[in-house]
């Protein structure tokens, strides 16, 4: 799982010319889901999004506060293109989770984010829609985070845990 996190003073997402979500100060987070991602990947990414020291603290100390410390908003946008490969000049997305699997997975990610933060401060786009994202990046600050790559053995263990739950 991958998150591209942008510190923003404002951000919005529109579908068919209509704004469906918007935030003020906070984070705009693009979320990519890979074929073999698990619940552990969700937990890792959520923890990082909420705790990364990306804002100035109340004493203007740089890199001293997280989105939770500041009680700012988060706008999440699903973006399968984060898991692309280039074959020459052609894009290939075989590493991305399929749309039918990734929509419930993405919804689980949002639920975990809301469970660990204030649900009214978490917004999102429209899964699978052609969206227009408008951001005012502050800094500019953009951070990319990816959940740790697991060995095939740990992937199988995690898959079995999920199936047996």
Distance between the termini: 21 Å
Oligomeric state of this protein:
single chain
Gyration radius from CA atoms, angstroms = 16 Å
Mean pLDDT figure: 92
- Structural class given helices, strands, pairing? alpha/beta
N-to-C SSE string, H for helix and E for strand: EEEHHEEEHEEH
Molecular shape: globular
Specify the number of helices. Answer: 4
Q: Give a short account of the largest sheet.
A: 6 strands, mixed
Helix content: 25-40%
Descriptive tags:
165 residues; alpha/beta; six-stranded mixed sheet; two-stranded antiparallel sheet; 4 helices; globular
How does this model look, in words?
This protein is of the alpha/beta class and 165 residues long. The protein contains four helices and eight strands, in the order E-E-E-H-H-E-E-E-H-E-E-H. Strands 1, 2, 3, 4, 7 and 8 form a six-stranded mixed beta sheet that branches. The chain has a two-stranded antiparallel sheet with strand order 5-6. Strand 5 and strand 6 (90-92) form a beta hairpin. The relative contact order is 0.26.
Quick overview:
The protein is of the alpha/beta class and 165 residues long. The protein has helices at 39-51, 67-70, 99-116, 152-164; strands spanning 2-15, 18-23, 26-32, 73-78, 85-87, 90-92, 122-124, 131-146.
């Amino acid at each position: 799982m991958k998150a591209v996190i942008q510190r923003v003073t404002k951000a919005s997402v529109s579908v068919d010319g209509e704004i469906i979500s918007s935030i003020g100060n906070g984070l705009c987070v693009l979320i990519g889901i890979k074929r073999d991602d698990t619940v552990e990947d969700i937990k890792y990414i959520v923890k990082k999004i909420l705790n990364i020291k990306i804002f100035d603290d109340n004493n203007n100390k740089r890199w001293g506060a997280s989105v939770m410390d500041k009680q700012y908003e988060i706008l999440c946008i699903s973006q399968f293109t984060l898991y692309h490969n280039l074959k020459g000049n052609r894009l290939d997305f075989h590493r991305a989770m399929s749309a039918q699997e990734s929509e419930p997975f993405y919804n689980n990610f949002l639920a975990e984010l809301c469970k660990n933060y204030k649900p009214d401060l978490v917004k999102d786009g429209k899964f699978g829609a052609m969206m227009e994202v408008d951001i005012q990046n502050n800094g500019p600050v953009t951070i990319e985070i990816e959940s740790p790559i697991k060995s095939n053995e740990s992937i199988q263990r995690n898959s079995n845990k999920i199936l047996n739950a």
